[in-house]
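User: Show me a protein chain along with its predicted structure.
Assistant: Here is one chain, sequence first, then C-alpha cells.
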Amino acid sequence: MKTIKLEVRGMTCAHCEESVIKALKKINGITEIEVNRFENYAQFRLDETKANQEQVKQAIEAIGFQVV
C-alpha cells in the first residue's frame, strides 16, 4: 500500500468533495480517502496491485475536476 496525495483543482463546495470521494471509492484498491477542497487535494492509500495512479486520475477527471 502506498499513500498518494494528488492536487485536484475545481472543487468549490462540500458536494465537490463528496463527488471525488465517491469516484475514488469505486476504484478497487483505494482506502483511507481524504479530500480537502480548501487545500485542493485528494489523499488516499493505493494498492498498486489492484489499480494505478492513471486510473485514479481518469476517474477524477471524468467527473469534471483537474488533477495537476
